Amino acid sequence: MKIIIAIDSFKGSATSAELNQAAREAVEGVLAGAKVETFAIADGGEGTLAALVEALDGEFISVPTVDLLERPIEASYFLVGQTAFIEAASVIGIDRIAPTPETVERATSCGLGALIRDALRRSCKEIIVTLGGTGTSDGGQGLLASLTKEEKEQLRSLSLVGLTDVTNVYAGKEGYARIFGPQKGALPHQVAAMDREALAYVALVKEQLGIDLQTLAGTGAAGGLGGALVVLGGELRAGFPFVAEIVGLQQAMQEADLVITGEGCLDAQSLSGKVPVGVASLARTRGIPTIAVCGSLATELGVFDDYFLATYAIQTGVYPLETAMQKEVTLANIRFVVRNIIRTFYP
Description:
Family: Belongs to the glycerate kinase type-1 family.
Radius of gyration: 20 Å
Strand content: 15-25%
Number of strands: 13
Helix content: 40-55%
Order of helices and strands: EHEHEEEHHHEHHEHHHEHHEEHEEEHH
Shape: globular
Structural class: alpha/beta
Keywords: Kinase, Transferase
InterPro entries: Glyc_kinase_flavodox-like_fold, Glycerate_kinase, Glycerate_kinase_RE-like, Glycerate_kinase_sf
Largest sheet: 6 strands, mixed
Protein name: Glycerate kinase
GO molecular function: glycerate kinase activity
Number of helices: 15
């Protein structure tokens, strides 16, 4: 009996590794002889660096910089040989603020420039930036303004990669302003203004560089930061396949009998490159059943029938969101639900 567990982090509650361990304890409590393998996993959003650190040998480099409201902070990136892994959320993460109309006006991506500059100073040949979980909606303009002309030229001479957890383009109906602006505190008139600026920038980039940001999936990621990386000569890749390959998830699925995955909220956005659907897709090619355990589930889940044998919300009672998101509550609920799943699946 072989069971694979790869649950994404529940934002603001528990890490992928913590959730995996809780689920593992539940499985082993029912099936003492089962072979259980856990994989810290992510999709380019927050938690991606933690997943990579578990699979790679490197060192953390600490750099003084500023957060999205330009408050002084120390932020770290992960250096593996001549490759720098930078998690945007560690510098300009939405968890650093309580989003309001005021913060959406002030929030800037400029703080990422210090980490990129340090990586260039260390002669890195590759810089990989994870783009999810940010609180900025500046179209990446803060980052672009923070870099010198010489630094921009240096970036074009190496491999610059942005890992995305969404497929949104830079502007318009599916652009960063209209889709993610309200989540980051923007009022309707601010969303409209941001989108006008984004559309104008799309036209400018197309005219000056011959690049159409509207044709590239992920340019709207991280409040348009994906588009800024493209302007700097970078490429965008889907985060989940990148992480899954590095941690060896696909290879580990050989001869597996069951896969357990999940995320904080399983909804329509999960179809756009999120962990549970990515994990289930890998398992489906091998005919392995996949079960998703999540903090919450959208009410219309028929679209997921092709991916999951079943989906479960882990909540065991009615209590405030603040209580439900407490780490100890989340981990206890994961253990309870997974234990019951295993008892049902393997009576």
